[in-house]
TrEMBL record:
Membrane topology listed for this record: Multi-pass membrane protein
Originating organism: Wenzhouxiangella sediminis
Transmembrane intervals: 7-25, 31-50, 71-89, 95-112
Entry coiled-coil feature ranges: none
PANTHER family: INNER MEMBRANE PROTEIN YCCF
Residue ranges annotated for the Inner membrane component domain, each copy included: 5-55, 77-127
Entry's localization field: Cell inner membrane
Protein name: Inner membrane protein YccF
Amino acid sequence: MLRLIGNLIWFVLGGFFMGLAWWFYGLLCFISIIGIPWGRACFVIGKFMFWPFGREAVNRRMMTGRDDLGTGCLGMIGNVIWFVVAGLWLAIGHLFWALALFITILGIPFGIQHVKLAGIALFPIGKSVVLSEVADATRAARRD
């Protein structure tokens, strides 16, 4: 129930607009053939922007225990391209919402979430969005 309330408040306090921004960049990426992998990621993360509570963006290497196309050298190159084309602008959008929310006491937790998401906006390649319980279980299994 708390996740639902958090997600509803989040949706009003910037989640809707940032989700749309991610989807806008996703559409731009789909215009070119080579941008399709970035576009797909934009739609996944855009959905995450609408309803982030109860989910986490985690490194796929941490989840699977091995490298893949997005977590290796090509992923790093993809992140550099992403940073220049869209990542910086999406991060600025998240920081704008964070600053606006930091003005109010009730908005501070949501502003902190926007700051975290600004980091994801800068370098999203190699990340997967999973349920928080899955991320916690994976971290616990890695510690053992």
